[in-house]
Design brief:
Length: 432
């Protein structure tokens, strides 16, 4: 089983560069399926398992996907199927965003329904309701959803999302780009990754306005073409390094981090006593003056509120803060599995429903722990970096889904962390 071995307590310094955002690349690759002509080139694409899975998913139905360094080229003029293989789609929930492009361009899509995952139930009802509002018919058949557009194609519609789902907003923006007439998505997700998708769609010839606000308006066009686009920096990778710098750094510089995308995290780190400065192409962070961060209360919510994908990492930091913090998770119902693992390292955390009460302890101690999902894995790495002694982190397939070169990036900052490769383990379920 591959594992990370971390010797804790070493200070961090220097610069680390954040790559392109995983959660932006995945819908961008799916959106490339909308191009009837031309080639798309997407730059600053991180080398991640999830990205490989999405590339394989669109290749399996006829897209030509070529990776050169950090650029990916996609040509989608020869799509031969509207049914990506079930085993590929089931590897990753985010694959469901191929439904919108296929339905809009080919009037049909048959996609395996994503199951629940480690962090919660995660339905796709809002995606499907939105497609239905645009005239599609959805039939559920043996674990698949079979979507068919009317003979004349999807029609623009007014769609209200019960919750501002990131994935549903993406699927509906893409579908509406090739629908007839005008679509309005109300209570849309405002995440920067969705703005990035809208920019890419517009470069492909779409007419999307308002991305990044609650209301997105789309005028459908008849065809789209390939386009060039550079992915926005990964705010969660950036956030993970900012937390590390706030715990152990001496002016760690997180290059390519965009402060506008990280306002809630920066505000919380400052409230806890860290110093954070916005520089020309990145963010610099220092620990609290007295050494330890102070307790704070954190509540996750939809963007621009505090991101659920940074909940586990801040909890790891607060587990060694001065005083008692609370961390409330409102986006997913089961996203506290890292609590038990942090407890193995000496953290004093108990949960009450969706709230975790974190009593800061003087020190964590190294232990063997297992990543239960992607961001939980990042939290355990942070905990290992501050703990006394040696920590072993297992379950690396989760971390590989979302962090490109995590080990070498931390080594570059002076962390004592290494990866030991041994025979493979089974891969288990995925999550955000
Ligand atoms: C995306 C991110 C993930 C992040 C999450 C919330 C990607 C690839 N993943 O996931 O990292 O944690 O946003 O910021 O971008 N919901 C419904 N019905 C639906 C869809 C969603 O009830 O049809 C609910 C979910 O159960 C959840 C909430 O809405 O409670 C948010 O989910 P959503 O924004 O859709 O998350 P994802 O797009 O799956």
């Amino acid at each position: 089983m591959p594992k990370l071995v971390i010797e804790g307590g070493f200070p961090l310094s220097g610069t680390v560069r954040v790559g392109g955002a995983k959660n932006a690349v995945l819908p961008l690759l799916a959106a490339s399926l909308l191009a009837e002509s031309g080639m798309s080139q997407i730059d600053d694409v991180p080398n991640l398992l999830d990205v490989c899975n999405m590339a394989e998913t669109i290749s399996s139905i006829g897209a030509r996907v070529e990776r050169r360094g950090t650029s990916v080229r996609v040509q989608a003029n020869r799509i031969h199927s509207v049914e990506p293989p079930q085993d590929l789609v089931r590897r990753m929930r985010a694959s469901f965003v191929v439904a919108g492009p296929l339905l809009a361009r080919f009037k049909e899509a048959k996609i395996s329904l994503p199951g629940g995952c480690n962090i919660g139930n995660r339905p796709v009802d809002l995606h499907i309701k939105g497609f239905e509002a645009m005239g599609a018919v959805a039939q559920h058949e043996g674990g698949y959803v079979h979507l068919k557009a009317p003979a004349g194609g999807l029609r623009g519609a007014r769609i209200y999302l019960d919750v501002p789902s990131v994935g549903a907003t993406q699927n509906l923006m893409m579908a509406a780009s090739l629908a007839k007439g005008h679509t309005v998505i109300e209570n849309a997700a405002k995440e920067p990754e969705n703005v990035d998708l809208a920019n890419y769609l517009n470069a492909m010839g779409a007419r999307v306005r308002g991305a990044g606000t609650d209301t997105i308006r789309i005028d459908g066009v008849t065809r789209l073409h390939g386009a060039n686009h550079t992915v926005i920096p990964d705010r969660i990778e950036a956030g993970t390094f900012l937390v590390a710098g706030a715990l152990l750094g001496s002016g760690v510089y997180v290059e390519n981090a965009v402060s506008d995308h990280l306002m809630s995290l920066i505000a919380k780190l400052e409230e806890a006593g860290a110093r954070v400065e916005d520089e020309v192409v990145g963010i610099r962070v220092w620990p609290a003056e007295r050494g330890r961060l102070s307790a704070i209360d954190v509540k996750t919510h939809f963007y621009p509120s505090y991101p659920t994908d940074m909940q586990a990492q801040i909890m790891a930091a607060l587990s060694v803060a001065l005083g008692t913090s609370t961390v409330t998770e409102t986006v997913f119902e089961n996203r506290f599995m890292h609590v038990a693992e942090l407890a193995r390292m000496g953290a004093n955390i108990h949960t009450q429903g969706r709230m975790a009460i974190v009593e800061g302890v003087d020190r964590l101690s190294g232990a063997a722990v297992t990543a239960t999902d992607l961001r939980a894995g990042a939290a355990l790495v942070l905990a290992g970096l501050v703990a006394e002694g040696e920590t072993e982190v297992l379950g690396l397939h989760h971390i590989d889904r979302g962090y490109d070169n995590l080990v070498s990036k931390f080594q570059q900052l002076g962390a004592h962390i290494r990866r030991l490769e041994t025979p493979t383990e089974d891969t288990g379920a995925e999550s955000a």
